[in-house]
Design goal:
The chain is α+β, with helices and mostly antiparallel strands. The chain has nine helices and eight strands.
Amino acid sequence: MSVKKLMQKLFGGIDLTWPKLILFAIIAGVLTAVIAIIPALLYTSFHAITATFEVWILFGILIILNSKSNLDSALKCFVFFLISQPLVYLIQVPFSWQGWGLFQYYRYWFIWTVLCLPMGYIGYYMKQDKWWGYLILLPMIALTAGSYSTYFSDFQFYLPKYVLITLFCACAIILYPVLIFRNKKIRAAGAAVGTVIVIALTVIGLLNPPVYSTEIMGNNEEHPFDDSYTVSLAEAKYGDVSIYYDEALEDFMLHADFKRGGDTVLTMISPTGERTDYDLHIERDTYKVTKKARSWANAAAPLQIRTLQDAAS
């Protein structure tokens, strides 16, 4: 089957029966949960399906275009998300330290599940192939554009991670009108608008490269320092570090502006020339600092671990 025929099949050529819809919902829920469970996929394109809308928007569009009426579309969108979303959390329960507490995050998705009823009903009008059908599509494109902006920034920060989801969002913004509508004018206009959106967001992203600003550590008995110390990163591409005095805390802090994710070495040198090295691992919104051993007898010990993963779940 050619790509063109496959796209025509997916975007309106499937006999979407209720058993097929339920199976689709189960597969989507299980796959998403498995991705969320695997730690190695956390900071990758695959993890996007567990946190943001863009892939689920595609699922919703496919359901709408393969439904038989406005009511059929509304009910199938609602049931699809009513099955898939709780399943995502249910499967994760045995693997999460939060246990059943994970379902506190489902309230947000349940609101969107309820909204699937009017969205599915109204979305079905896109099948009438009228110019205002693109206006119905625009909110879905806007949500995908928001994801593109986020993931393009993440892509810049941690090359080549997030390249797949960034490309997916860009293609979706441009190609949805081409795949959904048959009217050539709507397809051309929609693709042109989508191209302008992608170019504009790309330029904005390039002009405003991502920076992760945080305090790495504070002055204490185990790791004393003040503004007479010098600090640096082994590779400048990862960002900048500096020591400053925090008036509120009345103490010195080590501040970092990270510009890339990866692994490097943080070095601190005292006024007397005593050098301390730390292994530094940087992610988009988390870091890990581990003090290097001074000799074979001193094992490296974790200094500080900070993560925002739980708050973002």
